[in-house]
Design a protein that fits this description.
The chain is an alpha+beta fold. The chain has 2 domains: 221 residues, Distorted Sandwich (Beta-galactosidase, Chain A, domain 5), CATH 2.70.98; 231 residues, no CATH class. The protein has an 8-stranded antiparallel beta sheet, with no helix packed on it. The chain has a 7-stranded antiparallel beta sheet with strand order 1-2-3-6-11-16-15, with no helix packed on it. Strands 4-5-28-27-26 form a 5-stranded antiparallel beta sheet, with no helix packed on it. Helix 11 runs antiparallel to helix 12. The chain is elongated and about 85 Å long. The two termini are 39 Å apart.
């Protein structure tokens, strides 16, 4: 249903990340497997593993190719970026035959990749290029062990400067200027007869690194940082209010000049000793859809970021409760009584819609436990809980007509309907790892409410087993877990989740409903609280606050928003937010109330 490509055999026995920025590099379809390669956005670069020549690691500075939809009353509904082969790190030995691409390790921030002469394999390192693809990397880099490097472009090249050994400054016909650094300064490169490739004169052993010059940036802005290469990165949770991104680096300059790495706007706000965009000498490039990125220099190899708690932390109830006058004026108690007495049902065919219903009914019980609404009478609460517990028997026992199953290729919990229907689109693509944080967030949050209200319920042990399993599927913090990948949906670099799973997307991964994203981590925090698991509560709380910051920064646009083009900002919500495109739309309707409403559900204390 969703073929995996370009992954080393030994990794296929482990949990494979399903919702990462680099997913397009390993996801394909049976129709496209030999012909179509989709980019992935590390930002500030977009990267591709082409299936047609020129082969190698292809890079594009997307911002150059931004396109806006036609304006209507001064507003555009979307903007996106074309992909062009600005530069491809290649080798003469590849010729006209596609090399073997092989992702051979994962980190929280990216992947390590081998690109080998077809049929040679990783055992012959002299036939391979080795690259690390990492969120925010300042350079596109690869290490050669004998191949003859070629840097190929769609555009004619002009060699502006080669006076410094190991450094070449190249201007492309699209007006971009790229700097090339070679760790072996004795190597000789020149523009070849095609006029669009910088080629080495002989086989080469060492690293070649490329970076696009910022607008009005001098040719020397990257010089101090060329000898520190990022190889990956992992998140480390320090406390309930702080975390670090720890970069794996190599090279002689890492401890002296330091690692240059690009940060996004929400990171600069909360990073210790951050270099802001406006500071003198700042190196600034543009991401595709998340605004300006500014280079940060660290000799420690780590960024520390803080997400402080607010004065009024949200719990099960809002910070302020309704007064007796308000309860009386709006007839809240009688409405609550009517809703609880109504007929409750679950649709046995949908984990998403059933989860929404479960959280809605559980929220009624939560209101029935609020003395500001019902006073001291517990009759309504007891009735509500009894109905709720009867209703979810099929969840607790996993006996819906389409039960959840454990999928063994990527390794995770999916609806069995994907296999009975042989259709990747059923249940919004749950079977191919779309939207698990949306779907399962309802079950987690509702179950936290139930456990708070009736912790001694006879079905609680089975309920806890189900909830812990769903939490592990979506937000497993353990990189050594043999059954689930680490943090399936959540990007600690971007600050929010990706909803799209293991099918390729031309514009990269996306997220639509930020409020349902928030709902999952809200439920995770509450579940940690009611199970007295401080580690889970703290982790959920931290992820929730980081998520909220990213949502405010990128998805919900006030009139002074500078992340997105000014013609897009009057939409006020991004709609479907891709790595390469912001589209004022939804997957299910073009109606304005849907585009905005999907950012509001479910109504809860955290989304209020």
């Amino acid at each position: 249903l969703a073929p995996i490509v370009n992954v080393a055999d030994d990794l296929l026995t482990k949990p494979i990340p399903t919702n990462e920025w680099w997913g397009n590099l390993i996801h394909t379809t049976t129709e496209d497997i030999n012909t179509v390669a989709n980019p992935a956005w590390s930002n500030p670069y977009a990267l591709k593993l082409p299936k047609q020549a020129p082969f190698g690691l292809q890079a594009c500075y997307s911002y150059t190719y931004r396109q806006l939809a036609d304006e209507v009353d001064g507003v555009v509904r979307y903007y996106l970026h074309e992909f062009h082969n600005d530069v491809t790190l290649s080798a003469s030995e590849f010729g006209s035959t596609k090399p073997d691409y092989e992702v051979y390790s994962f980190s929280d921030m990216g992947v390590a990749l081998r690109t080998c002469v077809a049929g040679k394999g990783a055992s012959d390192s002299s036939s391979c290029m080795d690259s690390a693809l990492v969120h925010g990397m300042a350079f596109v880099s690869t290490t050669y062990a004998g191949l003859t490097p070629r840097i190929e472009s769609d555009y004619a090249m002009t060699l502006l400067d080669s006076s410094t050994p190991g450094k070449y400054v190249v201007q492309l016909a699209n007006n971009q200027t790229w700097v090339v650094f070679c760790s072996d300064t004795s190597a000789t490169f020149s523009v070849d007869g095609t006029g669009s490739a910088l080629a080495a004169a002989a086989g080469y052993t060492g690293t070649v690194r490329l970076a696009v010059l910022p607008e009005n940036g001098g040719q020397g802005v990257y010089d101090d940082y060329a000898s520190c290469v990022v190889r990956g990165g992992d998140v480390s949770v320090q406390s309930r209010t702080s975390y670090s991104l720890d970069w794996e680096t190599e090279g002689s300059g890492c401890k002296s000049s330091g690692l240059l790495h690009f940060a996004l706007p929400h990171q600069v706000e909360v990073m210790g000793d951050a270099t802001p965009t406006q500071s003198s000498g700042a190196i600034v490039l543009h991401s595709s859809t998340r605004g300006q990125m500014v280079g940060q220099v660290t000799t420690s190899g780590s960024w520390t970021l803080s997400e402080p708690e607010s004065e009024d932390e949200v719990d099960f109830y809002p910070a302020s409760k309704p007064s007796a006058d308000v309860v009386s004026q709006i007839g809240l108690l009688s409405t609550l009584q009517s809703d609880i007495d109504s007929t409750w049902t679950l649709d046995t065919g949908s984990w998403y819609y059933n989860g929404k219903a479960y959280q809605k009914y559980a929220s009624l019980c939560l209101m029935a436990a609020d003395s500001s609404v019902v006073g001291a009478d517990t009759t309504l609460l007891r009735s509500c809980l009894s109905k709720l517990q009867t209703l979810i028997a099929s969840f607790v026992n996993n006996t819906f007509s389409v039960p959840l199953v454990y999928e063994t290729t990527y390794k995770g919990i999916v609806t069995s309907q994907v296999f009975t229907s042989n259709d990747v689109n059923v249940e919004f693509g749950n079977g191919v790892y779309n939207d698990h944080h949306y779907h399962y967030g309802y079950w987690v949050t509702a179950s936290a409410i139930l456990k708070k209200l009736d912790p001694s319920w006879s079905g609680m042990t089975q309920l806890e087993t189900m909830v812990w399993t769903l939490l592990r599927d979506v937000a497993n913090p353990n990189s050594d877990d043999a059954y689930f990948p680490k943090f399936r949906h959540f990007s600690w670099y971007l600050g929010h989740s990706y909803s799209h799973g293991v099918t390729p997307m031309a514009d990269g991964k996306d997220q639509e409903s930020t409020s349902e994203d928030v709902n999952f981590y809200y439920g995770m925090m509450l579940w940690g609280k009611v199970t007295v698991n401080q580690a889970v509560e703290d982790l959920g709380s931290l992820m929730l606050r980081l998520n909220a910051r990213a949502v405010r920064t990128y998805f919900l646009m006030t009139s002074d928003n500078t992340i997105h083009p000014p013609q897009f900002v009057p939409n006020h919500v991004t709609g479907i937010f891709f790595d390469n495109k912001a589209d004022y739309a939804t997957w299910f309707s073009a109606e304005k109330y849907c585009i905005h409403g999907i950012q509001m559900i479910p109504v809860s204390p955290i989304n209020g």
